[in-house]
UniProtKB/TrEMBL annotation:
This is Putative proline/betaine transporter. May be a proton symporter involved in the uptake of osmolytes such as proline and glycine betaine. It comes from Streptomyces morookaense. The keyword Lyase does not apply. It is a multi-pass membrane protein. Pfam families: MFS_1.
Length: 438
């Protein structure tokens, strides 16, 4: 027997459910492709928007603009979280991909410093602000959609595809970078080749917009009886202050570690470890493929043993192994040692990434679930995830690069305390949050 959500009564994943995962995940992939190619191609376009000077200073400037996008994520989390709770998950998901498409077009067409001076930086800044709005809502909308659309005993597995799709977006961006590195000269990449991924992202977003217009709403949202005037409001969220603070605290360590070993890793390997840009890119590309493949395995494991064991494993590993891993990465010297250490780090991070979406969604009732996930998560990302790369470069520029390693470990330690004291959410009934499923 199959319900209207595409789930079977036995909790197995049906064809209808797989379709929902595909549409939700494909859109998420394009969103994060556009978000991450900014970081992946920054070493090529940093010089296009700023005057000649120190290479690390240029990267810090572009990293600063990257961080600005994160500070718009709380605004996007509030705005699009409200849309998701009041108008539906489908409406929010469609709006996010529209904003992302517009931002990709702006970056693709942005004038360089030689043409418009700092006018190009202004265009770049506006584009990142739009991306921040979009991603601020996308995370919560897709996390809520994937969690609500799955059977109770498969929520960890289904929601793990959020990071599969996020990572697939980054893999696609790195794959395109590798292709361009082998088909264009360095001069061509610095001159105009870096614009190609943003054109690709804009076209991909247009396709996803078409697909999302036909997606089905989740049954949990349609059956919600929350009063219309109270859906998705700050007033409703304030009745769940503890859960909101919990989302911020459990995000802190995970988001810093995730951005350290994904967006910053390529720059770290080339700018600090001394690997060539091509080798550093290939290391990240191969590591992320493995990372994406193990997300559903970890998500399915959480459906059997619970969410807390995986979160605690991540936090313990990140707290005690970050400093030695980053130190050895700096002296890796070649492809295989760098790849092995990167994989070790990403396996540890999987304890957080594979299940954090469903854990957060499981904390809130339907009428405030999208906003409850979006706003606290976006705030934590603005404070910790978005600044991770800038903080790393700040430590490097100050001659104390190892300080960043301890910073990452410290953030993980704070989250470890939260994981040890939080309740288990695996058996929560999404329609009556707080009540275990039978």
């Amino acid at each position: 027997m199959e319900t209207s959500t595409g789930q079977t009564s036995t909790g197995q994943t049906s064809a209808g459910h797989w379709k929902k995962i595909w549409i939700g995940s494909a859109g998420n992939m394009v969103e994060w492709f556009d978000w991450f190619v900014y970081a992946s191609f920054a070493t090529y376009f940093a010089g296009a928007f700023f005057p000649a000077g120190n290479d690390t200073a240029k990267l810090m400037n572009t990293a600063g603009i990257f961080a600005v996008g994160f500070f718009m994520r709380p605004v996007g989390g509030w705005l699009l979280g409200r849309v998701g709770d009041r108008r539906g998950r489908k409406a929010a998901l469609t709006l996010t991909v529209t904003l992302m498409s517009a931002s990709a077009v702006l970056i693709a067409l942005a004038p360089t410093y030689a043409v418009a001076g700092y006018g190009g930086v202004a265009v770049l800044l506006v584009a990142r602000l739009l991306q921040g709005l979009s991603v601020g809502g996308e995370y919560a909308a897709s996390a809520t959609y994937l969690t609500e659309a799955s059977a109770p005993g498969r929520r960890g597995f289904a929601s793990s595809f959020q990071y599969v799709s996020m990572t697939a977006g980054q893999i696609a961006g790195l794959g395109l970078l590798i292709l361009l590195q082998h088909t264009l000269t360095g001069a061509q990449l610095h001159s105009w080749g870096w614009r190609i991924p943003f054109v690709v992202g804009a076209l991909g977003a247009a396709v996803i917009f078409y697909l999302r217009r036909s997606m089905l709403e989740t049954e949990a949202y349609e059956e919600s009886t929350a009063a219309d005037h109270d859906r998705g409001t700050i007033r409703a969220l304030l009745r769940h202050k503890r859960e909101a603070l919990l989302v911020m605290a459990l995000t802190m360590g995970g988001t810093v570690a995730y951005y350290t070993y994904t967006t910053y890793l390529t720059k770290y390997l080339s700018n600090s470890a001394g690997l060539s840009k091509q080798t550093a890119t290939l290391v990240s590309f191969c590591a992320l493929i493995v990372f994406a493949c193990i997300q559903p395995l970890a998500g399915a494991l959480s459906d059997r043993i619970g969410r807390r064991p995986l979160l605690i494993t991540f936090a313990v590993g990140s707290t005690f192994l970050t400093v030695p891993i980053m130190t050895m990465l700096k002296h890796a010297g070649s492809f295989w040692p760098a790849l092995g250490l990167s994989l070790l780090a990403l396996v540890i991070v999987t304890g957080y990434t594979s299940i954090n979406a469903c854990v957060k969604a499981e904390l809130f009732p339907t009428g405030v679930r999208s906003l409850g996930v979006a706003l606290p998560y976006a705030l934590a990302n603005a404070l910790f995830g978005g600044t991770a790369e800038y903080v790393a470069l700040w430590f490097k520029d100050g001659g104390i690069e190892s300080g960043f390693y301890w910073y990452v470990a410290g953030c993980a330690a704070v989250s470890l305390v939260v994981y040890l004291t939080m309740r288990e959410t695996r058996d929560i009934d999404l329609r009556t949050t707080g009540v275990p499923t039978s």
